[in-house]
Amino acid sequence: MHPGGVPQLMISNTETIPGRTITATLGLVTGSTVRAKHVGRDIMAGLKNIVGGELKGYTELLGEARNEAMLRMMQAASGLGANAIVNVRFATSAVAGGAAELFAYGTAVQVQ
Amino acid sequence: MVDEAVAAVLWTFLPPLIFGGGPLFFSWIVGNSYQNRKMTDTAAREKASIMAFGGRDPLTSTVNLYPSANITHGRLLTANVSIGPSWWQFLLASLKKIIGGRIHVFDRVLEFGRREALQRLREIAQAEGVDHVINVRLDTSMIVVNKGGDSKSGAMEIFAYGTGVHVAKPAPEA
Predict the structure, then answer these.
(1) How many Å lie between the alpha carbon of A3 and the closest alpha carbon of chain B?
(2) Taking CA atoms, what residue in B is nearest to A43?
(3) Per the domain annotation, does B174 fall within a domain?
(4) Residue A29's domain is classified under what CATH number?
(5) Which residues of chain B have pLDDT under 50?
(6) Is there a domain that residue B23 lies in?
(7) Would you call B39 an interface residue with chain A, using a CB distance cutoff of 8 Å?
(8) Domain tally, chain A
(9) Exposed, middle or buried: residue A104 (CB in 10 Å: 0-12, 13-18, 19+)?
(10) Could you give the dihedral angle defined by the CA atoms of residues B131, B135, B141 and B143, in that order, rounded to the nearest 10 degrees?
(11) Which of B17, B18, B64, B108 has a Cα at 20 to 30 A from B43?
(12) Are B153 and A49 a contacting pair at CB < 8 A?
């Protein structure tokens, strides 16, 4: 598990936390992780490409990586003393052959 | 005698089938039926989810539902799916690229991916017990870039996310 555990934060991709009032804006928080696919998964996905459709290995890998990026963003926010993150956005980019960066960012706020 | 004849036939036809167009043939027959089955499955689950939400789609791409909606609380929900076309579809697409125009085989793969990602978001919304998912966004990104030519691998990821909200039931008017 990560040091500090999972911070308890409210997260939304809208401009407010529905039903709450924002009392302070603490600035932008980001979290990112770069993941490489391992060879076994690559081979399995390559074989799955014969029939096409979902490539489950990649689905899981990217899901886990995105959770990690979100966790880092949440840790940054709780470090600022926030109790919520609003307007969260995601970005995915291929940084090198076989490696992808998962990036999450949002605005750390305090809500009532 | 019969064995020898069978062996002779196998030796004549199997190697070209395996090393020649065999996998491609397999990709055409099995891949098409597999993808059709998955698409039918997604459509059935879509219907079931919409039924579970009382005949309406819980997903909206807007932030404000309707003026009287009293949203009590919400949280971020995410769903993703990675997809790739089959070898057969890559072959058809590379042939189509010679003359250009619409590549129908890839349309189908992407349509499946988008519907599946949105359907997973609906299922997560159902599991979390929220009433609506507002501000739904879809991201598409290349995971494995197809290099063209003989390359037969390629993958994309479709990522769907939104804010799941609870709507307070309006107080009965006197």
Answers:
(1) 23
(2) B153
(3) no
(4) 3.30.110.70
(5) none
(6) yes
(7) no
(8) 1
(9) buried
(10) -30
(11) B64
(12) yes
Provide the domain count of chain B: 1
Per-residue pLDDT of A51-67, as tens digits, reads: 888 988 889 889 999 99
d(CA B164, CA B166): 7
pLDDT at B114: 95
- Residue B58 touches partner A, C-beta closer than 8 Å: no
> Is A65:A35 a contact under the CB 8 Å cutoff?
yes
Q: ipTM value of the model?
A: 0.86
Model pLDDT for residues B32-64, shown as the tens digit of each residue: 899 999 999 999 999 999 999 999 999 999 888
Is residue B173 one of the residues assigned to a domain? no
Cβ–Cβ of B80/A53 closer than 8 Å? no
Answer yes or no: do A14 and B135 touch at CB < 8 A.
yes
HSE at residue A50, side-chain half, CA atoms within 13 A, is 13
